[in-house]
Amino acid sequence: MEKKLCIFVAIIMLCAWSSPGSENNAGSEQQRIKQRPPIKLILPDLVLEKIETKSEPYGSDKVRITISYWIFNNSTADSRCCPTEEGKKQWKEKPAMNLLYRTRVEARAYSGGIYSELGGTGTETKANERQKYTATHVVKKGSRWKYRVTADYGNWIREKNENNNQKIQNWPMRIRF
């Protein structure tokens, strides 16, 4: 009984496979796939728009500087859509950072030296969204500083333009001699 049933099913499948028009349908399907335009991946574009510094007295010999910066996603894609290999790795190793990217604020004495990290945050930027962040730095009165802010510091997000993620700002803006 089982052999007869298997032969019967095999004959039906063979008939369906070789039915008239099935070859034409397969050919037209292949033709339709070939004619389909390639899919273009829409990537986010994290733009560090500007940095502003404001200062206020802090005690008798210090100044507190507030560094404000704006990040704009100039795209119809959210920042979490397109991680780099490094982004995938970091998201897996650090679940608290899942789907986020890092920003970094750094400072150095204006006359030279190396940048040291002041802070930053992990964030996600939706499509066409603008976000404002701040960091603070307390310095001696009369000193001069240079601030550098980088969006997507670890390059965790694939972007359509990787060259607009960083800006530098001097403080004070006008140096008096």
- The first-to-last residue Cα distance is 104 Å
Q: Tell me the strand order in the biggest sheet.
A: 4-3-6-7
Shape: elongated
Order of helices and strands: HHEEHEEEEE
CATH class placement of the largest domain: Mainly Beta
CATH architecture annotation name of the largest domain = Sandwich
CATH topology assignment of the largest domain: Immunoglobulin-like
Number of helices: 3
Count the E strands: 7
Could you give a short account of the major beta sheet?
A: 4 strands, antiparallel
The portion of residues forming beta strands comes to 35-45%
Rg result: 29 Å
Offer a concise description of the structure.
By secondary structure, this protein is α+β, with helices and mostly antiparallel strands.
Structure description:
With 177 residues, this protein is α+β, with helices and mostly antiparallel strands. The chain is 22% helix and 37% strand. The chain contains three helices and seven strands. It has helices at residues 2-17, 22-35, 85-93, and strands at residues 46-58, 62-73, 101-109, 116-123, 130-140, 145-151, 166-171. It has a four-stranded antiparallel sheet with strand order 4-3-6-7, with no helix packed on it. A three-stranded antiparallel sheet has the order 1-2-5, with no helix packed on it. The longest helix has 16 residues, at 2-17. The radius of gyration is 29 Å and the shape is elongated.
